[in-house]
Amino acid sequence: MKDLFGKALLDYQNDNYTEDIITSTNISDEDELALPYLFRDFKEMPKLEQKALKLSKGKVLDVGCGAGSHSLYLQEKGLDVKAIDISKGAIEVARKRGVLKVELKDILNVTETFDTILLLMNGTGIFQELSEVARYLKHLKSLLNPKGQILIDSSDIKYMYEDEDGGLWIDTNANYYGELDYFLSYKNEDEAPMKWLYLDFESLEFACESVGLKCEKVMDGDHFDYLARLY
Ligand SMILES: C[S@@+](CC[C@H](N)C(=O)[O-])C[C@H]1O[C@@H](n2cnc3c(N)ncnc32)[C@H](O)[C@@H]1O
Question: Is 142 a residue whose pLDDT tops 80?
Answer without folding.
Answer: yes
